[in-house]
Design a protein that fits this description.
Layout lengths: L6 H13 L3 E4 L8 E3 L8 H11 L4 E8 L2 H15 L6 H9 L6 E10 L2 E8 L1 H16 L8 H6 L1
Parallel strand pairs: 1-3, 2-5
Antiparallel strand pairs: 3-4, 4-5
């Protein structure tokens, strides 16, 4: 069962790292870095094995990143949706953004990782609502108004 707010989990991660004598580097490892995602969805403490693996590999620190949803991000998402769905103000995506408002200020995503021999080893955890948020963002980016091209010259030539 996914947690609604991952703040307590983040606190546990920081305490576990500190207990193992490891430091935290606040940073997100993006898609542009060769990486391997820790796959152990059935073990809620799988991230602890990642930390133990990092220590066994001789790392001195792990990266840690969290995402906290804000009103400003939701407002920007809502504005993009309005631009894309105009004049349909009843599009289901609007309800999705409104439902996310109750999660403002909560940690919805955590990434913990370390780099060994040029490869980042990562553990990621996301709440259900954060996954819905990501889906909305992907839908907006996929439809992106910037992809629409208006050929102004075609009207003048006709």
């Amino acid at each position: 069962m996914a947690q609604d707010n991952l703040l307590a989990l983040k606190d546990d991660m920081v305490a576990f790292l500190t207990g193992h004598g490891l430091r935290q580097f606040p940073g997100y490892v993006g898609d542009d870095v060769p990486s391997v995602l820790w796959e152990d969805d059935e073990d809620p403490d799988g991230w602890k094995r990642l930390v133990e693996t990092a220590k066994a590999a001789g790392t001195a620190f792990l990266t840690i990143s969290d995402v906290v949803i804000t009103d400003e991000e939701l407002d920007a998402l809502l504005e993009k949706l309005r631009e894309q769905n105009f004049p349909d103000e009843d599009a289901p995506e609007f309800e999705g953004v409104d439902a996310l408002r109750k999660h403002v200020g909560k940690v919805g995503f955590l990434q913990l990782g370390f780099v060994h021999q040029g490869v980042a080893f990562l553990h990621e955890t996301a709440s259900d609502w954060y996954e819905q948020y990501e889906e909305l963002i992907e839908a907006v980016e996929e439809f992106g108004l910037s992809d629409v091209v208006f050929d102004e010259d075609s009207d003048e030539e006709a």
